[in-house]
Amino acid sequence: MTNYPNLPNSVLEITEQPEVKEITNELLKQLQNALKGNHLFTEQVELSLKGIVRILEVLLSLDFFKNANEIDSSLRNSIEWLSNAGESLKNKMKEYEGFFSEFNTSMHANEQEVTAILNANTENIKSEIKKLENQLIETTTKLLTSYQIFLNQARDNANNQINANKQEVLNNITQEKNQATSEIIEAKKTDHFIIKTLIFLRLNKAC
User: Where, if anywhere, are coiled coils annotated (predicted)?
Assistant: First the structure.
């Protein structure tokens, strides 16, 4: 009797992540539709997993993951969580990819026997895939949402710094203007005093 691979454990070892706002992602909808198809089930899943692995590899290669130590301390823990969660999810995807690859090979080797086993375990496989699908949607949504939050915070920090610098320049200009005005007023007072003194001296001399 042919030996068949065991279905991987669908549980992901990911620590709890702070709450983030839900976002809509068209790619996740397309993935859900692909997994719900009734024809070429194993091929669909295998191709979907390969695509997900590629997406995760791109996400984990982004500069903001590599340069976590240069980011504001308030975001560092979140980014480290994202990196670890992404690695865990990518590894789990590769496990399932390997499983379906071996499974397809076994099916071609002994199609009748594999078909009987598949029919007997269809519900179990669907349940495991559904669990994986839900975890994938939740984790990928958190990844994309947290990245958007990070970008928004970076933008707000930049705007705040620009406004602070602009206000500082305006304050300096106002201060210089006030100082110049005070000096002009003081100079006028001095000129008036000198003129009055000269007039007084001339009057005394005339007398």
Answer: 115-190
